[in-house]
Amino acid sequence: MANTKANESESGESTKTKVKKILLCGLDLGTNTSVFQISNQDGKTVEYENDIHRSLVGYSKPGIIPGILPTNDTALFAEMALEYRMHLELKWPLADGFVSNVATCREFCGYLRKQIDPKENCEIWGVIGAPANASKSRLKDIRSSFSGVFEKVLIVPEPFLAAMGLRDDERAGVDPTYVDPTKHSLIIDIGAGTTDCCLVQGYFPTDEDQVSIAMAGDTIDQKMGELIGNRYPDISLTRVTLTKMKEANSFVGKDKTANVKVFVDGKPRSIDFGSIIRESCECLLDPIMESVRELFSRCDSESVEHVLKNIIVAGGGSQITGLPDLIQKRLREEGYEGATTMVPDDYRRLVARGALKIANNVREDQWQVPL
């Protein structure tokens, strides 16, 4: 006992185990890209140099020569995996918006944790976005992916988080001219794996308020690959190349040129893929319109007018040139008078920012321990 007191006296610290600090995390775990936003328990935002990471794991191929890869690790993640993809077997932790392999996804989530807490001296409690109407088994897969990664989690539908992320808390409830997206809005969240449509009317959305479509950015990539393969059978493009082509050139509406350099038999060629890209992108339009019509039919008649004026197109698909305007045009042509679409400025962090707002207001008894 005397030695213990002496040690406490010399160090100025108790020998009792210190309680770890808690970081609160809002996480958009996406098929293509994952984004986190962090605060401490006092609600103060923690800034990071990089909070956006490609959802990708690369495992080293057998027989790799020492020194080819930047580390001795057998797995690389995110942009590093993309950079060294020629020497890796690429695995996407999520497909169609959901966890495709729990073990791989857990490895990727562990990578994200190291970016959030590199010194490993904190607990992390995270609110995580999930596609609308996710089944119990899909939600279980998400929770399982955070077993041993986050200490506590809570899973919330992504469209609702997008509305929370867009909300201006300083104006809501104070400025009578402000249209609160968490009170009257229809969110169209176009990701890589799913397109989620959701009515947000001032309360946590029920299953009836949500429609999830298994068509999104990856569908466009697949469609492009099929059309290019049919028209140019000598051209073989990887999934990564198709995604980059889409991100750089996606559009709907009137045709325009989209010249892309590809290699045919080892020789560079510039080919106009404009019509193919347009056709591929427009494959999302009809399913989105059908889902929006369905949700408007379920909307309270007193809310419809307000919701029509606040149709929010979010996610990576919001950056398809002309798509939000075309949705608005189609709705007005079908008689939805006053239908107005908008695209948030910072679409990438929208869901994660909304998730962090929720994390800062979750009651102790609402958190779940991932097992």
Distance between the termini: 39 Å
Order of helices and strands: HEEEEEEHEEEHEHEHEEEHHEEHHHEHEH
Would you tell me the structural class of the helices and strands? alpha+beta
Q: Number of DSSP helices?
A: 12
Average of the residue pLDDT scores: 91
Helix content: 25-40%
CATH superfamily of one domain: ATPase, nucleotide binding domain
The CATH architecture category of one domain equals 2-Layer Sandwich
What share of residues are in beta strands?
A: 15-25%
Radius of gyration: 23 Å
- Beta strands, count: 18
Low-pLDDT stretches: 1-15
Shape: flat
Strand count, sense and barrel status of the largest sheet are:
6 strands, mixed
Kindly identify the CATH topology of one domain. Answer: Nucleotidyltransferase, domain 5
CATH class of one domain: Alpha Beta
Describe this structure in words.
Helix 3 (102-116) crosses helix 4 (136-145) and helix 6 (217-231) packs across helix 7 (239-249). The chain is 34% helix and 23% strand. Mean pLDDT is 91; it is low at 1-15. It has helices at residues 2-11, 78-83, 102-116, 136-145, 158-166, 217-231, 239-249, 274-281, 285-298, 301-308, 323-333, 350-359, and strands at residues 21-28, 33-40, 45-46, 52-54, 57-60, 75-77, 88-91, 94-95, 98-99, 122-130, 152-157, 185-190, 195-200, 210-213, 259-264, 267-272, 311-314, 341-342. It has 12 helices and 18 strands. Strand 2 and strand 3 form a beta hairpin. The chain is flat, with a radius of gyration of 23 Å. It has a domain at 21-162 and 350-366: ATPase, nucleotide binding domain (Nucleotidyltransferase, domain 5). The chain is of the alpha+beta class.
